[in-house]
Design goal:
By secondary structure, the chain is an alpha+beta fold. Helices cover about 55% and strands about 20% of the residues. Strands 1, 3, 4, 8, 9, 10, 12, 14 and 15 form a 9-stranded mixed sheet that branches. α10 packs parallel to α13 and α10 runs parallel beside α14. The longest helix is centred in the N-terminal third of the chain and has 40 residues. The radius of gyration is 33 Å and the shape is elongated. The chain starts with a helix and ends with a helix.
Length: about 425
């Protein structure tokens, strides 16, 4: 038993010693002058190729992150922190016990009832399909709607019996309305019950009108700006014939509350009858598309990295041939083939690791310069968009993934020449 332990310790000690020797020789081979200068050149090109591919991955993925974060800032002015909608159907009773319990939660600062559905809007001789969003009077406390309204008036939902409608800026352009439009904006919505009288088709619609508060809103997202009209919930309930019902309960949490934790708590109260969504889930389609685009960018850049690593194969193959006499000398001194393979493996791995470190560092530097100075602009169209330069946001989880990808591809690329040549 003691002999077995001693043999195990000797093997471990020999393995560590071989690793140190292999690393020392591999480092000398990498930086020392070779008998053929082209090997030095190819080794340098290998490092530069890995570095450039790594830098490109860091920069491109950070730009994708920048656009994703930029889109998220657009939604925060309009979308609630948490939205609760019925899992089936369009509406549910406003006094549903689950919703009443959620309103009473300590974490809830503002809860706004919302009724939303499609309708036809007609102004003058122009018309458009719109989304009527009826909200409570506390909607200004829930969202930052006042920050995205433009015109000479104030955002209002109603004044006594007068109902106001605030359209999105692109919808106002479609209907030819100024911020303070004159006259009435007529709204038509199909009746929920009854049959259509073909002799009088208009009898199948609920018809009402809105006046202008003197402002339009601009979220800078076509989903809202081109077809939404914000009005009072009383008007929406009358128009869509859903008195005492709501299509969504929009929640603003108290400062310091963790959205994910509160969301789980609310979902436990609601069960399967309701969907509890944070801002990202409310815009799930948009963010899923961005995730797919980012994934495709990562895959394509990984292919480019694989091509760059072919330089390592060439460099290592030539180095093995150049150092064949050295390898024979090491064998004569008692070195095993495993040690010689380890030397050249470490040589290739050093090239990939050095390239990865330099690429990550250079990529982070370029991202920092873009964030600070906006070096790469959006071209001739700059000034027409929300930002003039490409947005950049570095996520360190991406940096770690990129580094591991580069190292893994580099490690895999050196196995082929080692097995074939030695």
């Amino acid at each position: 038993m003691e002999n077995d332990n001693c043999n195990s310790l000797r093997q471990q000690s020999r393995g560590k010693s071989n690793l140190r020797v292999g690393f020392f020789i591999a480092r000398r081979y990498l930086f020392s002058k070779k008998s053929t200068n082209v090997i030095n050149l190819i080794s340098a090109i290998s490092v530069i190729g890995v570095m450039v591919a790594t830098m490109a991955m860091v920069v491109v993925l950070s730009v994708f992150n920048g656009f994703s974060d930029l889109v998220a800032t657009f939604f925060t002015a309009f979308d609630p922190q948490i939205e609760i909608t019925p899992a089936k159907g369009k509406t549910v009773a406003a006094d549903d016990p689950a919703l009443v319990e959620i309103r009473k939660m300590d974490e809830v600062e503002v809860a706004t009832e919302c009724v939303q559905d499609q309708a036809l809007a007609i102004y003058g001789d122009k018309q458009a399909m719109v989304v009527i969003k009826g909200v409570d009077d506390n909607f200004t406390q829930l969202s930052r709607i006042n920050d995205i309204c433009y015109g000479d008036g104030l955002f209002e939902l109603h004044a006594a019996d007068i109902q106001y409608g605030t359209p999105g800026i692109r919808l106002a352009q479609t209907l030819g309305m100024p911020a303070r439009y004159d006259g009435y904006l007529h709204i038509y919505a199909p009746r929920r019950t009854g049959q259509v009288d073909l002799a009088n088709p208009l009898d199948g619609f609920v018809v009402d009108s809105l006046l202008s508060p003197g402002v339009v809103f601009c979220v800078q997202q076509g989903k809202y700006d081109k077809n939404h009209i914000i009005t009072s919930i009383a008007f929406a309930r009358m128009l869509f014939q859903c008195d005492g019902e709501l299509s969504a309960l929009e929640i603003k949490l108290k400062p310091g509350c963790d959205v994910a934790t509160v969301k789980k708590k609310m979902q436990a109260v609601c069960g399967e009858r309701f969907r509890v969504m944070d801002r990202y889930e409310q815009q799930e389609d948009t963010f899923n598309i961005m995730k797919i685009e980012k994934l495709m960018g990562y895959i394509f850049l990984t292919f480019i990295l694989v091509v760059a690593c072919f330089n390592i194969i060439g460099s290592l193959s030539m180095l093995i041939i150049d150092k064949k006499k050295d390898a024979d000398t090491l064998r004569n001194l008692g070195a095993r083939d495993s040690l010689i393979r380890q030397i050249f493996l470490l040589e290739g791995w050093l090239i990939s690791i050095i390239g990865a470190i330099l690429g990550v560092g250079l990529g982070l530097l370029l991202c920092l310069l873009q964030q600070q100075y906006g070096i790469v602009s959006l071209g001739e169209s700059s000034g027409s968009f929300v930002v003039d330069a490409y947005p950049v946001s570095v996520h360190y989880s991406d940096v770690i993934l990129i580094f591991l990808t580069v190292v893994a591809v580099g490690f895999a690329s050196v196995l082929y020449p080692i097995k074939k040549v030695i």
